[in-house]
Each structure stands twice: as structure tokens, then as C-alpha cells.
């Protein structure tokens, strides 16, 4: 049949599920599905934890440098780049906190 030739050319087996031992491939995929789902869930939770830690570290970094700026050593036009970096870090931290929350939605 023409359809069988196309399947064989694409590397697909022409064996039917209903033929002798044809179900084994499906059974194997079903058995692997639980492990795949568990691994995907673990991957997402690990990513969420990384996002949370990164956001927390950026918050601490920003607080440290804002305290330095409040000491009065930096003033005038040089204050703008310092504050800009802190504001950028704060915005990135907030974005990563949101990302962590999205990954942890049950």
C-alpha cells in the first residue's frame, strides 16, 4: 500500500497496534509517561527555586548599594547611573519573583 511505504520511508513501523506484540510500544510509552511527568514537574520546581534565589540575591544587592548611596559619598550627576543600576536590578528582581510565582502555581 502507498501509506505503508510512506510510513517506512519516515522511519515509522507499519506494524499495527492490534497485531502480535504490536501493543508493546504503546505500553512502554504509557509506563514512561509517569516518569516523564514527574521529571518535568521536578524541573519546573527547580527552576522556580532558582528564580526565587536569584530574585532574593538581587534584592540584597540592591539594598546594599542603595545604603551606600545614602551614605552621601556619591552626589551630583554621578548619582544617576548608580541609582539607575539599582532600579534596573529591582525591576529584574520583581520580574523573577513573578516568574517564580508562575512556576509554582499548583
Overall structural class, as computed from helix and strand content, comes to: mainly alpha
Mean pLDDT reading: 83
The count of β-strands is: 0
DSSP summary: helix tally: 3
Instruction: Work out the helicity level.
Output: over 70%
How many domains would you count in the coordinates?
Answer: 1
What percent strand?
under 5%
Distance between the termini: 48 Å
Helix and strand succession? HHH
| CATH class bucket | Mainly Alpha
Tertiary shape: rod-shaped
InterPro entries: AH/BAR_dom_sf, FCH_dom
Protein name: FCH domain-containing protein
Domain FCH: 15-102
GO molecular function: phospholipid binding
How would you characterize the overall build of this protein?
The chain is mainly alpha-helical and 106 residues long. The chain has one domain (2-103): Substrate Binding Domain Of Dnak, Chain:A, Domain 2 (Up-down Bundle). It is built from 3 helices and no strands. The chain has helices at residues 2-9, 24-70, 79-103. The longest helix is centred in the middle third of the chain and has 47 residues, at 24-70. The two termini are 48 Å apart. 3% of the residues are buried. The model has no long low-confidence stretch (mean pLDDT 83).
Summarize the structure.
With 106 residues, the protein is mainly α.
Main attributes?
3 helices; 106 residues; Substrate Binding Domain Of Dnak, Chain:A, Domain 2; mainly alpha; 75% helix
Question: Which helices and strands appear, and what pairs or packs with what?
Answer:
Elements: H1 2-9, H2 24-70, H3 79-103
